[in-house]
Design brief:
heterodimer, A: 359 residues, mainly alpha, three-stranded mixed β-sheet, 3 strands, 71% helix, elongated, B: 271 residues, three-stranded antiparallel β-sheet, flat
C-alpha cells in the first residue's frame, strides 16, 4: 500500500508554491524557484514569511498587472535554470523583447518595481534603441507624450530640477501678496490725505491725472471720478445705492489703477463703474461737474441721450466684467480676505460686488 | 592601382549592408552608399558593383521598417545618386523597388491606429534608459516633454557622456558648482570633431579598419583593451567613401559642406 501511495506522489506535488496578489485583487500561485528569482518577492518571503498561503499572499506593487506578471515569470522561468549557455540566453532575450512599445514600457515599470535588474536592463536597452536617432516629434508620437515645453525651455535645460509645480504656484502667490501689501500701503496714504478737503482736490487731481494718463481717456473718467467725489461730500445719503456704488467704485478705481492689474480690464471696469454710478447721480451732477470745468476739461458726452446709450453699454459690460473679475478676485484674494479683518478696502470690494450684482 | 580584391574586402569590412537593418545607422549607411556611387562607382570591379547594387535595393526594401523622417530623406538621396550614376537596367530595377517601397510606406501610415495612452515611466527608469543613448539622441529626448526634459538634466548622464567623449583628454577639471552638463557642453563646443559624430564611423588602428563605433570605441573588445579604451578617430561619410575607393585626401573636409548642401537641395526635388 505504501508503494502505491508513493507512486501517486509526483514530483510536482513536492514543489512549493508562493502566493501572490496583484493590485487588482487577483491571486495566483507560482513555483517558488521562479518567484524567488525576483529580489522583491524573495525579500518578502525571507524577511516576512509571506506568500505561504492564499490568505497570506504577497501583495505586489501597483505597477505590476497580471499580464506583465506572467511575462515576467516566463522570463524568470527560463533564466533561473542554471544549465543554459550565454548564447541561448541572449537568443531568448532577443525574442522576448519583441513587443510593442506600450507593453515594453509596462514591462519595464513592472520589472523595476519587482527589482528584477537584468530584465530592467534588457527592456531599457530596447527602449533606448527605439528612441535612438529619432526626432523629438517622432518620439512624442511613439510614446504618446504631450508637447508641453516652451521654445526657450527646449533650448535650455529647466533651471530648477527640483521644481515642483506647487513651489511655482507658491512663488506666484507670494509675489502677488507682496504686490497687494504695497498697494494697500499706497491706498492708506491716499485715503489719509483725502480726508482733508483741500488736499483732496490736489490729491484727486494727481490721482485723476494718473488715471487719465493710464487710460488715455481723459474727459470721461476724470470727470466721473471728480463728480463722484462731489457726490460723496454733498449728498452722502441721498442716493444710497448709487452713492454707495460711487464710494466703492471711486475707491476701487483708485485701487484698480494703483494695483497695476491687467490694464485693459482695469480701465474698462473703472470707466464702467464710473458709468454705473453716474446713472443714479446724473441729475445731481449736472451742475457740479460744470463747476469743475475750470480745469479745462471739456466733456462732449454731456448730451443726455448719448450718455444714456453709452451708459447702458457700459453697464452691461460692467456687469459682465464685474462678475468675472470679482470671481477671479475672489479666487486670488481668498487668503488676503480672511487674514485682514475690518479692512475698509476689503469690505468695500465685497460691498461693491454685492451692489453690482443686485443692480 | 587598386587591387580589386582589396577593395572588395574593404567594402565587406565596412558592413554597410548589415547596418541597414539598424534603425540608428540606416540613414548613415544610405549616405555612404550615395557617396560611393557618386564618387567612384564606375571604377569599381564588377563583383563589387553587383554587391553595392544589392545593398542599395535592400536599403529601399527596408525603408518601411525605419520609422523616421531621417531615413526617408536618406533613401531619397540614395535614389538621386542611383538615377545619376547607375546604368539603365540597374537604374530601372532600383526605381521600381523604390516605388514599391513608397506604396508600402503610404499603406503603413494610413493603418496607424491610435493607441491608448502609454503608462508614464518613472524618472529613474527614464534616466536609466537615457544612459544607453548617444549625445544627439539624448538632446532630442530633452526636447520631447517636460518630464523627459527633467530626466535629461540628471548630471550623472552627462558625466557618462563626458567620459565617453573626452576621457583621453584627461582634463578632469572638477570645478565646484559646474555641472557635468556644463562641462560637457564647453568641451564639446571647443572640440572640432563634432561634425563627424553624425557619421557613426571611426577608424580603429588596432584592427586597421573603419568600424561602426559603439560609444566612440571599436566594437571589438580586443581593440578596446589595446587602446586603453580611448575614443577612436572619427570619420565623416565622405571620408569613408574615399577610404573605400583608395583616395585619401584630408582636403575633402572643405568641400564637404558644399556637397552636403547641394545634396540637401536634391533631396527636396524628388517625388
Amino acid at each position: 500500500m505504501l508503494e502505491s501511495d508513493m507512486a501517486i506522489i509526483t514530483p510536482e506535488m513536492m514543489k512549493s508554491y508562493i502566493w501572490l496578489e496583484t493590485a487588482d485583487g487577483s491571486i495566483q500561485q507560482v513555483e517558488q524557484e521562479v518567484a524567488m528569482f525576483c529580489p522583491m518577492i524573495c525579500q518578502e518571503v525571507v524577511q516576512k514569511g509571506a506568500g505561504s498561503s492564499k490568505n497570506n499572499a504577497i501583495s505586489l506593487p501597483q505597477r505590476v498587472n497580471p499580464a506583465m506578471l506572467s511575462l515576467i515569470f516566463d522570463y524568470c522561468r527560463f533564466h533561473q535554470v542554471s544549465g543554459r549557455s550565454n548564447k541561448e540566453r541572449k537568443l531568448y532575450d532577443e525574442k522576448f523583447i519583441r513587443m510593442d512599445t506600450k507593453r515594453l514600457c509596462e514591462l519595464t515599470s513592472a520589472a523595476d518595481s519587482l527589482q528584477l535588474k537584468p530584465l530592467v536592463d534588457l527592456t531599457s536597452r530596447a527602449l533606448a534603441r527605439i528612441i535612438e536617432g529619432k526626432s523629438p516629434e517622432e518620439i512624442r508620437e511613439i510614446f504618446h507624450l504631450p508637447d508641453d515645453l516652451t521654445e526657450e525651455e527646449k533650448l535650455e535645460p529647466l533651471k530648477n530640477t527640483m521644481d515642483d509645480p506647487r513651489i511655482r504656484l507658491l512663488n506666484r502667490l507670494y509675489a502677488k501678496k507682496r504686490k497687494e501689501l504695497k498697494e494697500r500701503e499706497k491706498l492708506k496714504a491716499i485715503s489719509m490725505s483725502q480726508s482733508i478737503e483741500v488736499e483732496d482736490r490736489v490729491d484727486e487731481r494727481s490721482v485723476d491725472d494718473l488715471l487719465s494718463f493710464i487710460n488715455g481717456r481723459d474727459p470721461k473718467v476724470v470727470k466721473t471720478s471728480k463728480s463722484k467725489k462731489k457726490n460723496k461730500k454733498r449728498k452722502e445719503h441721498k442716493n444710497g445705492r448709487s452713492n454707495g456704488t460711487c464710494e466703492a467704485s471711486e475707491k476701487d478705481s483708485d485701487n484698480l489703477h494703483s494695483k497695476e492689474r491687467n490694464a485693459k480690464i482695469v480701465d474698462e471696469s473703472a470707466s464702467s463703474l464710473g458709468g454705473v454710478s453716474n446713472l443714479g447721480s446724473m441729475e445731481d451732477d449736472i451742475l457740479t461737474p460744470k463747476a469743475e470745468f475750470e480745469d479745462g476739461y471739456i466733456d462732449d458726452e454731456f448730451d443726455p441721450v448719448l450718455k444714456e446709450m453709452l451708459d447702458r453699454e457700459v453697464e452691461d459690460f460692467a456687469r459682465r466684467l464685474n462678475s468675472s473679475w470679482v470671481l477671479s478676485l475672489g479666487q486670488e484674494r481668498q487668503p488676503v480676505h480672511f487674514s485682514i479683518n475690518g479692512n475698509g478696502t476689503t469690505r468695500r470690494l465685497t460691498g461693491r460686488a454685492g451692489l453690482a450684482r443686485s443692480s | 592601382m587598386s587591387d580589386p580584391r582589396k577593395i572588395m574586402r574593404r567594402y565587406q569590412n565596412l558592413m554597410v549592408g548589415e547596418a541597414l537593418s539598424n534603425n540608428h545607422h540606416y540613414p548613415v549607411a544610405c549616405n555612404e552608399l550615395s557617396s560611393i556611387l557618386n564618387l567612384g562607382y564606375s571604377q569599381l570591379p564588377k563583383n563589387l558593383k553587383a554587391l553595392i547594387f544589392r545593398d542599395t535595393l535592400s536599403a529601399f526594401r527596408l525603408l518601411p521598417d525605419m520609422k523616421t523622417s531621417a531615413a526617408v530623406s536618406a533613401a531619397n538621396l540614395l535614389l538621386k545618386s542611383v538615377e545619376a550614376v547607375l546604368p539603365k537596367q540597374k537604374k530601372n530595377l532600383a526605381i521600381v523597388e523604390f516605388k514599391k517601397t513608397k506604396v508600402a510606406l503610404k499603406r503603413r501610415s494610413k493603418s496607424h491606429e491610435e493607441d491608448i495612452d502609454l503608462p508614464s515611466l518613472p524618472q529613474d527608469i527614464l534616466i536609466h534608459i537615457f544612459s544607453f543613448l548617444d549625445v544627439s539622441s539624448l538632446l532630442s529626448s530633452s526636447q520631447v516633454s517636460r518630464s523627459w526634459n527633467q530626466a535629461t538634466c540628471e548630471d550623472s548622464l552627462w558625466r557618462l557622456q563626458y567620459d565617453i567623449h573626452f576621457n583621453h583628454k584627461a582634463l578632469i577639471r572638477i570645478q565646484s558648482g559646474v555641472s557635468w552638463r556644463e562641462a560637457f557642453k564647453n568641451a564639446y563646443i571647443g572640440d572640432n570633431s563634432s561634425k563627424d559624430l553624425r557619421s557613426g564611423r571611426g577608424y580603429c588602428c588596432y584592427c586597421d579598419s573603419v568600424v561602426w563605433h559603439e560609444n566612440l570605441r571599436c566594437p571589438n573588445k580586443q581593440c578596446r583593451l589595446k587602446s586603453d579604451n580611448e575614443p577612436l578617430e572619427l570619420m565623416s561619410t565622405r571620408q569613408v567613401a574615399n577610404f573605400l575607393l583608395g583616395t585619401m585626401s584630408s582636403s575633402d573636409d572643405e568641400s564637404d559642406p558644399d556637397d552636403e548642401a547641394s545634396r540637401g537641395l536634391w533631396a527636396f526635388t524628388l517625388y
